[in-house]
Amino acid sequence: MSEADFLAGYDPAAFPRPALAVDLVLLGLRDGRPAVLLLERSQHPHAGRWALPGGFVGLDETLDKAAERVLREKAGIALAHLEQLYTFGALDRDPRMRIVSVAYLALLPERSFAEALDGEAPLAAAILDVPWAGETGGPVAALSRRGEPLALAFDHADILALAVLRLRGKLDYSDVAFALLPEQFTLRQLQDVHEAILGTPLNKPAFRRRMLDRGWLKPTGTREAGTSFRPAELYRLARPR
Amino acid sequence: MSEADFLAGYDPAAFPRPALAVDLVLLGLRDGRPAVLLLERSQHPHAGRWALPGGFVGLDETLDKAAERVLREKAGIALAHLEQLYTFGALDRDPRMRIVSVAYLALLPERSFAEALDGEAPLAAAILDVPWAGETGGPVAALSRRGEPLALAFDHADILALAVLRLRGKLDYSDVAFALLPEQFTLRQLQDVHEAILGTPLNKPAFRRRMLDRGWLKPTGTREAGTSFRPAELYRLARPR
DNA sequence: GCAACATATATGTGACTTGCAACTAAGTAA
DNA sequence: TTACTTAGTTGCAAGTCACATATATGTTGC
C-alpha cells in the first residue's frame, strides 16, 4: 500500500481493528495415535466445549513470541517445535467480537506431552480421529479417553483438520517427525511416528532404507534398554534441529 | 483461551491491538520467467521503493475478502487464484506502527498480468530472480526491465521469497500451475510454466506422461492456431478449478 | 504438388526407487 | 541349549523417471 492510500483510507484511531490472537495445536502421540491437548471452556460462549490454548497478540511481541508465551503460560511447556499453520479470519468465528487467529502447530515428544498433562494447566488429552486417507483432507474428530467425540469450540475443529493435513504433507520431505521423538530413538519408533501421523502401516525395509539414505540419521552406537528381546540401535539427528 | 482468561487478561478497549493488513504477491510469467506486479511508493517510509499491493482488513470482511478487495481496488484485477501464504508479524516490519500482515499469493495468467499492467493502477512488472535451486529457499531479487535489482519496501523481499518457495513446493502435486495458464493450453505451455517456476529445464516425454497420467487434463480436440509448424493439441482442465 | 523444416507425439531402454517376502542376527527367558 | 521375539538384511519383481531416438503432422517455400 502507498502511504497516501494508507492515510486516506485508514485512520488507525477512527477505524476499529480486528483483535489478533494465536491458537496452538499441541500435538503429540498417545498409544500410537495422534493426540492433542485441549482446555475445557468454563464460561460462555461455548462453555463446556473444548478449545485450543490461545491468547491475544501483544503490541510488543511477534506472532512467534506470542505463540511461545501461550505455550509457556497456558500449557506450561518450555520448549517445543512451533510452526505457523494458517490464519483464520472468518467473521463469526468468535461470537464476542471479531478475532483473527494465527494458528500454530506445536509438536511435543511423548514425554513433553505427558508432562504437560500432569502439570498445573487443566489440559486434557484427546485422540485425533482422522477418517480420511493421505492428503484428501476433511473433518477430524477429537475423542475423549472413552472414545466419545468431544464438542470443540469456535472453528477449532477446522484448525485441527488443517494441522493433520499439513503434518501429513510435510512428514516425508521434512524433518518434522523428529520433533515428536526424544533426542535418541530407534528406527522402529520413527516408523511408528510416521504410521501414527499418516494413519497407514508402512513397509519396514523400505522405510528403513529411505530414512538411512537421507543421511539425516546418525547411529549413536548404543542400544535401547529394557526390552525382553533384541534391543534396537539408537539413532539421533545428524544435524540437530 | 477460556473466557475468564480472556476477560481477565485482555480488555479490548484498554489494550491497543496491532493493525491487520493483507499484502498480495501478484505473480505471473513474462518471457518465460516468473514476474510480480509492484507499486512504487511515493511517500515515506520507504519512498521510492517498491511494494506489494496491500490494504487493511476491515472489521466486516474476512481475510480472503480483504485480499479480493485489494486485488480489485489496487490492481484492477477482477478474478485470480488467491491463496493465503503466511502471516508476517515482526515488530519493526513497518516503521509507522505495528502492522501484522497476512500475505496472499495471487496467480495471474499471462493475459491478466498484461491487462493489470496496462490498467489504471500504476503497477510495474518486475522479473523475479531466484538464485537458488529446488526448495532450498533463500533471498530473491526483483529486477527492473533493464535487469537492475529493485529496492523493495518493508519485508516484502521475504514475502516474495516465501511465495516462490511455496509455489515450487506445490507445483508438482497440486494444480496451481493451471492458474498461470489460459483456459485452454498446450502441453508445451504447461511445461513452460513448470520450468519457469522451478527454474530448471524438464524432460519432455517424462513431463508429458506424468501430466497425462494424472488424469487432470482433457484434450479439447482442437489445436493451437498461428504457428508456422505443426500445431499442438489444446487441453483444458478436466475438473475445472 | 512436393520437399524441407520445425515441432508434436510416441516408443524403447537403462538407472533408480519402492513394495514385498523371505532370510539372518541378536538379544531375553526358561 | 532351545524357544521366542524383534532387529536388521537381502533378493527380486513392479513401477517410475530421465534420456535418446523414432515417427507423425502441420506450415512454408519452391
Automatic annotation (TrEMBL), chains A, B:
Domain of life per record: Bacteria
Molecular function per GO: hydrolase activity
Pfam family, one: WHD_NrtR
InterPro entries: NUDIX_hydrolase-like_dom_sf, NUDIX_hydrolase_dom, WH-like_DNA-bd_sf, WH_DNA-bd_sf, WHD_NrtR
Keyword presence, Lyase: no
Keyword annotations from UniProtKB, A to Z: Hydrolase
Domain Nudix hydrolase: 16-153
Keyword Chaperone: no
Protein name as annotated: NUDIX hydrolase
Source organism: Methylobacterium oxalidis
Lineage: Bacteria, Pseudomonadati, Pseudomonadota, Alphaproteobacteria, Hyphomicrobiales
